[in-house]
Structure formats: structure tokens, C-alpha cells
Amino acid sequence: MLNNYNSMAQPLWQNGPTPGAFYNFTGGQQQTQKLPKELTAAGPFGTKRSTSSITTGSSVLGIRYDGGVMIAADTLVSYGSLARYQNILRVFPINNNIILGGGGDFADIQSIKRTIDQKMIEDQCYADGITMKPKALSSWLTRVLYNRRSRMNPLYIDVVVGGIEQDGTPYLANVDLRGRAYEDYVVATGFARHLALPLVRERKPKDREFTAEEASELIRKCMEVLYYRDTRNMAQYTVGVCNASGTTIDGPCKVSENWTFAATIKGY
Amino acid sequence: MSTIGTGYDLSASQFSPDGRVFQIDYASKAVEKSGTVIGIRGKDCVILAVEKIITSKLYEPDAAGRIFIVEKNIGMAVAGLVADGNYVADIARQEAANYRQQFEQVIPLKHLCDRVSAYVHAYTLYSAVRPFGLSIILASWDENDGPQLYKIEPSGSYFGYFACASGKAKQQAKTEMEKSRFVDLNTEELVKKAGEIIYRVHDELKDKEFRFEMGIVGSETQGIYQINPAVLTELARKAGENANKEDDSGDEAN
Question: How far are the Cα atoms of A83, A117, A127, A138, B216 from residue A132, in angstroms, in the given order?
């Protein structure tokens, strides 16, 4: 009953016969339910949809450590190559055990964030003390995103979900616009996947997890590298932290810039 | 039977010659049979408290709860038919969700009350439906507006209150309430008062067992609505039991 306000789930098989029935070629199919346009599959003459993002967030970087997770993202939302909105948070606290960082189309991030926030309130309404865990949220996200890609109408987002599971173990995962998902001790989206991921992996001790200090220092270092090397990045970023004592968003922090070397670069 | 309604009580869509809608009166009767519910507004919090009468020992302690969470910071308590309460609670949640979807902020309690009361009122207009056998108390707290308290009657009319009561011992509860100035009380004092009122108005002779339940939202709960938070609920129960003991010993002295 509570799910009445969730319009995400709709039947996948739209224009075909009902399972077990024959396709009616002459009479057309009975429309059982009028769906909102954005949720229906292509019409008889095709449907052109927007297949690119407009306002975009760049990299998100998540690191799992022994007592929790950290997710960092800069505060820039670009309009093409224009640094349009420079003070927008892209790492969100979801509840006491989940944080979420979003990259890709920012409108889609806001849209999915609204839906998730409503789910958290539903959770609270049950008044049973049970809250959603990060693994459950990322699993749910894969379902929503895969469903949208199957309708040829994906949400253009790449998100990092992190948090603390029921048994206290940290969890970190990435879900992308097709509904693909994986967990790891370090996940990254956008340019960070090329620039930050190897830096973190290089420093991972074989026999143990990172400590909070190591994770924090790595985030600082990686955000600096990203700022220097990715044109869609900014010197300001926030870090979401989720550990046993709850979720916090730290920052905005500044990358320590140093451009003295710039004068020595020649030949461009 | 023929003397009470004389034919004008069969439908909610017809007035009686003296200007009443009997179906609404009967709905109010259903509310009067229910265990007492109170709402009180303090300095920086608001409390809903319920005398939940236990009709069978076979029920689990938390069964048939009459306090609901509607939004992050909005709670609702009902006196009357619990099944009707469940349904209206869901309507209230949908209204709150709808407002949040449009404006990306929590619905002000006045607006929620307006929407829910309109819904309740619609059920007093048609012959095909019956009114809700409910008295609905809505409570919220936030940083800007402070504590808020509203009550919706079965007729669909609503009022804002400093303190209100419904159910069996509505009158006694109101008499108790007039003794204190709740707006000056802090969270702890208000919680104790809630316990005292519910325990005092409970009629041991008519209903043996009951469970005190409460919902609270305020600065001390960080603006999050909580039902039966362990520490505060225990505080209220203790205060209630003590109040009853004091009353008893006072009686003996006389």
C-alpha cells in the first residue's frame, strides 16, 4: 500500500500480447494502462529520446577502510565544458548507514535522490527500527537502472553507494546507468576511474584493509590529482563518511593548489 | 431503535429535521468508546499519548498501535476504530509524500490537516459511504514553527490546540489538563505529565489492563518523530504509576 507513491515500477512488456496469448495483428492490442510517456517503450514510428546528459557531475571516488567508507566528489556541476554551478553537493547522507555519491546527469541524480529520500521516510513510517542497508539500496538501484535501460530510456547516472551493513561490516559499491554493479575496496566513476583507481590500488596493503587515516589521506591526494588532470573538476570537494557512529558529510575542503611549476611547462 | 434516528440515520447524505447528520453522531459514539488519547504541546516538543486497552492477553504488546508516523517530523494518533485509523494514516502519508514531491520540503502541519480533514469530510457527504469512526490528532515540531497540534473530528472539522483529548475519559483528561500550563514545560516535564494524565484517567474498574504508548517529536529528538522511545516512555510510565499511588494514599488519609 505504501508503495503507491513510487512510480518507478511499471510493466516491462508493453506492446506485445499478454503471456500465453497470441498477438492480434489486425485489431491492435488493448491498452490496459496508460503509462507516462517516459516509461513506455518506442512507439510504432519510433521515439526519439534524449540520449545524452546536459548538466553533469564529474568523478566520484569511494574508499572502504577498516571501520567504514568514505566517498568524495567535487562540488562542480558542469554545463558542457562550462563550469556552470560551482557549489553543489554531490555526496549525500541517505540514512544513518548509507551515503551516496552521484556522477553523470545531475537532473537524474536529483530525481533518483528524491525517490530514495521518500523510501527512507516509508522506512521510518513502519516504526520498527529497521533501516535500509547499503547493499539493499545498491541492489534496488540496479533494478531501477536496468529497467530504465531496457526501455531505451536510461537515467544517465553513475553512483557510488557506501555504508555499514547490519553486522557492522563496511560496504562499498558502484552502480552505473545500465544497472551494472560491483563491490570493491575502492570504486570510482568518471575520470577518477582512470586517474584515482590505480593510485589507490597501488597503495593497498595485501594483508589488511586501509585505516581511516590512510583512506582520508588517499582521498586528499586523489582529489588533488583529479583537479590537476581532469578539466571538469574543481578545487573544492566534499567527503561523505559513514562509520559505526553514523553518517557525516565533511567539507567543503580545498585542494592545495600550487601552480609554480606551470611556468616551466613548454611546448603546448 | 425507532426513537433515536427515526429514519434519518440510514444515510450520511441526509439531514434530520433538526439539522443533524446522524451518521456523524454515531461515528462520534465509536470514538467515545475508544481508549483515551491525548496530545499536549510543550515549550520545544509535542507529545501524543494513548491509553491502549488490552482486550486479550494473547495479543503481542505492540499490537493494534494507535500512534502512526506520517512524515519525518509528523505523528498521528487516533481514537476510535483502529482499522479506519490505519487507512487514514496511509492517506496522510500519501498527502505528505505528494507535498514533498512537489515542493521538496516537509508539509506544514496546517496544510496536512487541511488535506486530511477534507478527505474525512468527504466521507460525511454520500449515502454510499460511512464517516470514519475517528478522532485524529496530528502533531509536529520543527525549528521554525515549533510544536504544532491539531485535531480532526469525525465530521471533518479541525482545530489547533495547546492540549486536546479524545476517547473514553476525554472530560477527565481535559479537567486534568486545565491544571497545568504546558507551554512552559520542557521535554522531561511534559513526558511525565503525559504519563500522569493517562494513568490518572484510566478506569481500573471498567478496563483492567492497558498499555501506555506515546509518540514524541521535538528538539530533543532532533525533529524526528519517535514512537515509544525507551527512556522517555519508561519515564512517563513511572510518573504515571507514582501519580496513581499518591492519589490512592491521599484517598486513604481522607
Answer: 35, 11, 13, 10, 23
